[in-house]
Amino acid sequence: EAGALIEEDRLTAHRLGAPVATRIDPIAPRLLGGARRRLQRLPGDVALDAVPTADCLGDTGVVELRFSVDGRSCGLALALIGPRGRSTIAVDWLTGAVVVKGGGRG
């Protein structure tokens, strides 16, 4: 679901012709989609590890993954680690492409 939320923000920025940002709080852990202001809280047994570029860091330590109209982003790597395994989400800074991998154990 996290990957779908991020991809929705990317596509919305392109469609509306205006920048859109996904806010990621690794401490809470939760994601807030900018397109629909949809909040996704992660289960308590899932850890969120975010590795943003310097351009994605917000003032309060919250990551602001911004998508521009042409699809570019500030770039990010996320790892979601829980009892069912590890998933990664990578967002390319140049193309804004969102790639989700994993979900299995190990």
Give a brief rundown of this model.
The chain has 106 residues and is mainly beta. It is built from one helix and eight strands, in the order H-E-E-E-E-E-E-E-E. 14% of the residues lie in helices and 40% in strands.
Could you characterize what this model shows?
The protein is mainly beta and 106 residues long. Helix content is 14%, strand content 40%. It is built from 1 helix and 8 strands; from the N terminus they run H-E-E-E-E-E-E-E-E. The strands form 2 sheets. The chain has a 4-stranded antiparallel beta sheet with strand order 3-2-1-5, covered by helices on one side. A 4-stranded antiparallel beta sheet has the order 4-6-7-8, covered by helices on one side. Strand 1 and strand 2 form a beta hairpin. The longest helix has 15 residues. The protein is globular, with a radius of gyration of 13 Å. The model has no long low-confidence stretch (mean pLDDT 91).
Descriptive tags:
globular; 4-stranded antiparallel sheet; 106 residues; 1 helix; mainly beta
Q: Output mean pLDDT.
A: 91
**Which stretches are poorly predicted, pLDDT < 50 over at least 5 residues?**
none
Assembly state (oligomeric): single chain
Shape: globular
- Kindly estimate the percentage of residues that lie in beta strands according to DSSP: 35-45%
Look at the helices and sheets and give the structural class: mainly beta
Share in helix: 10-25%
Major sheet: 4 strands, antiparallel
Number of strands: 8
Give the H and E element order. Answer: HEEEEEEEE
Q: Taking strands numbered 1, 2, ... along the chain, how are they ordered across the largest sheet? A: 3-2-1-5
- How many H/I helices? 1
Radius of gyration: 13 Å
Query: First CA to last CA: what distance?
Result: 20 Å
